[in-house]
Write a structure and sequence with these properties.
The complex is a heterodimer of chains A (119) and B (113). Chain A is an all-beta fold and 119 residues long. Chain A has strands spanning 3-5, 10-14, 19-21, 24-26, 32-39, 46-52, 60-61, 64-69, 74-79, 88-96, 108-109, 113-118. Chain A is globular, with a radius of gyration of 14 Å. The interface between A and B is medium-sized, with 24 and 24 residues.
Chain lengths: 119, 113
């Protein structure tokens, strides 16, 4: 079974600074996807970034980038130039790539990291 | 495009009752998944539907069921409610057939008294 671990329950960062959130996962699969989701206090879960395991290049979305280390099963999120609106719970998630038979496709989430951006 | 919508947003029920939650996916999305979010267990997968067929089911008792209609709207039903069913229920839709990019709705907050 796959598991996702986020070892930092809470973090804080000053506005405009950079912060890195950690995520490790355990799987015997070779084909999968990794995600970071953001859940602000309003509760709407938002997809921040997605990484396909077969791609060596790290995904980037504006101020958000990941450091994907497949061999180490590590998938950290870096937020540059932190803004007050980045305050939220951040969830790392894993999804096994759907194979023949369509038996997978669900997200497996970590417990989350609560990020506070301070002015 | 409108996002994923869920109704109702808040619900209060008593033990033993049953409840039905509704989810309308983003237009054009045929894959719909449901998740339960609680402080103790975190986010847990309930089930996934694609083209009116349940493709995948999480480890929840049979009291939890769902369905998907021809217009891709989905409902989930919980019968014989227990206190532990109090949670935020999230629906997500995906534009891809394998569901590898899921967009979430605002959730339905269910409180069981």
């Amino acid at each position: 079974a796959q598991t996702v671990t986020q070892s930092q329950p809470e973090m804080s960062v000053q506005e405009a600074e950079t912060v890195t959130l950690s995520c490790t996962y355990d799987t015997s699969e070779n084909n999968y996807y990794l995600f970071w989701y953001k859940q602000p206090p309003s509760r709407q879960m938002i997809l921040v970034i997605r990484q396909e395991a077969y791609k060596q290049q790290n995904a980037t979305e504006n101020r958000f980038s990941v450091n994907f280390q497949k061999a180490a099963k590590s998938f950290s999120l870096k937020i540059s130039d932190s803004q007050l609106g980045d305050t939220a719970m951040y969830f790392c998630a894993f999804m096994k790539q759907r194979g023949y038979g369509g038996s997978q496709g669900n997200l497996i989430f970590g417990k989350g990291t609560k990020l506070s951006v301070k002015p | 495009k409108a996002g994923v919508t869920q109704t109702p947003r808040y619900l209060i029920k008593t033990r033993g009752q049953q409840v039905t939650l509704s989810c309308s996916p983003i237009s054009g999305h045929r894959s719909v998944s449901w998740y339960q979010q609680t402080p103790g267990q975190g986010l847990q997968f309930l089930f996934e539907y694609f083209s009116e067929t349940q493709r995948n089911k999480g480890n929840f008792p049979g009291r939890f069921s769902g369905r998907q209609f021809s217009n891709s709207r989905s409902e989930m039903n919980v019968s014989t409610l227990e206190l532990g069913d109090s949670a935020l229920y999230l629906c997500a839709s995906s534009p891809t057939s394998d569901g590898n990019e899921q967009f979430f709705g605002p959730g339905t907050r269910l409180t069981v008294l």
